[in-house]
Structure to design on (205 residues):
């Protein structure tokens, strides 16, 4: 049975662009065997190629005014290196670590080390599949996990990560509203209490 995933125009286009001038930068990392998407176990992973998936991600990124870079590797070490390098170049990571999800403490540690908000994506619902796929070493250090929505999962991840990062930036820019502390009933204002102390002690250290 083929999965019925499609990338609808609505999902790609319905999101409004973020108003920030500084573009958010997101790294999309595809793990092992995802280069074979489109031909690999179509009943599980569908027929969309990695290239087509990446262009759908790029299209949504443009609509959101996000800069995305995609990369794919079959090598654990290379994935770790890209994650490490992302620390100074990107605001967040979307990763499908594929089979390394279930085995790689090195990838988990790299994500924890860089401290960038990271969304874990799986095309299939790993929790419905073989038991060895139920455990994710990545989930514990991820902002969130999306599984079972096929290619749309990447678009949901992009939207979610964009909103998370944009909210963070807005909060950074908003000055904190300083409200005067409430005085306990019956107490006098600090200024008046200090005045009394200065008069009785001569000075305040
Ligand atoms: C996968 C699920 C993994 O268990 C598997 O090893 C993959 C792909 C997914 O996208 O559904 O290669 O990450």
């Amino acid at each position: 049975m083929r999965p019925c995933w499609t990338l609808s125009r609505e999902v790609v286009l319905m999101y409004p662009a973020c108003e920030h001038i500084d573009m958010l930068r997101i790294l999309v990392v595809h793990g092992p065997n995802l280069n074979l998407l489109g031909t690999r176990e179509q009943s599980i992973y569908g027929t969309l190629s990695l290239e087509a998936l990446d262009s759908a991600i790029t299209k949504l990124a443009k609509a959101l005014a996000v800069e995305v870079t995609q990369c794919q590797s079959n090598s654990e070490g290379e994935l770790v290196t890209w994650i490490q390098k992302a620390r100074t170049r990107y605001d967040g990571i979307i990763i499908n670590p594929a089979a390394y999800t279930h085995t790689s403490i090195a990838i988990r540690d790299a994500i924890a080390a860089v401290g960038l908000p990271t969304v874990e994506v799986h095309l299939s619902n790993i929790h419905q599949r073989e038991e060895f796929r139920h455990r994710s070493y990545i989930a514990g250090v991820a902002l969130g996990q999306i599984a079972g929505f096929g290619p749309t999962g990447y678009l949901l991840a992009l939207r979610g990560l964009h909103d998370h990062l944009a909210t963070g930036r807005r909060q950074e820019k908003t000055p904190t509203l300083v409200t005067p502390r409430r005085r306990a009933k019956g107490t006098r204002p600090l200024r008046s209490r200090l005045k009394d102390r200065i008069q009785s002690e001569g000075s305040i250290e």
Summary: Residues 33, 96, 98-99, 101, 122-124, 126, 133 surround DQA (CB under 6 Å).
